[in-house]
Amino acid sequence: SGTVTARGDTDAGARRLMRAAESSIRRSLECTGCGLCVGKCEVRGVKVKNGRAVVNENCTHCGLCLKACPVVRYLNTKDISNI
Question: How many helical (H) and strand (E) elements, i.e. helices and strands, does the chain have?
Answer without folding.
Answer: 4, 2
